[in-house]
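Have a think about this chain, tokens included, and walk me through the fold.
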Amino acid sequence: MRITISIFLLIMVACKTTNTNTLKTNEVSFKTVSIGVLYGDGTEGISKSNFSISNAKDWNIFLSKINASNRFSKAAIDFSKQQLLCVFDSIRNTSGFKIEIENIFIEKSGLKIIYTTSKPSTTAMVNMVVTQPYHIVIIDKQEESITFINKDNLQ
């Protein structure tokens, strides 16, 4: 009996543990700065677009557009080490629409940002309000070219 327990303990100690939360080698970690919808009826002048912000001047210009009609907190960003990636959906006539960055990874051809959009179901109760879904994330500064890919168009 002692031999069996000893062998079992030896096997348990010798086994390596793995962390399932680790990033794949080509994945880029990111943190959400803000996700939600704008309610400015398009007054911000931001069309359906995807872009990166890599300096304080562009960030402040962007914030001045957003703050015109929306409450948007100004996060502290070190643009010498970090950059922002932004995805904006079309202006919508109802609530219930979303856009979200799901994954960022590096390939030989550059940085790939995968995002998805969703709409309310046909039976969903929605508000009649003009909205524009967006998602803004922060990553460590990258020099690679950036390509935004709508995952919904791949299916």
Q: What stands out?
A: The two ends are 57 Å apart (CA to CA). Residues 5-21 have pLDDT under 50 and may be disordered.
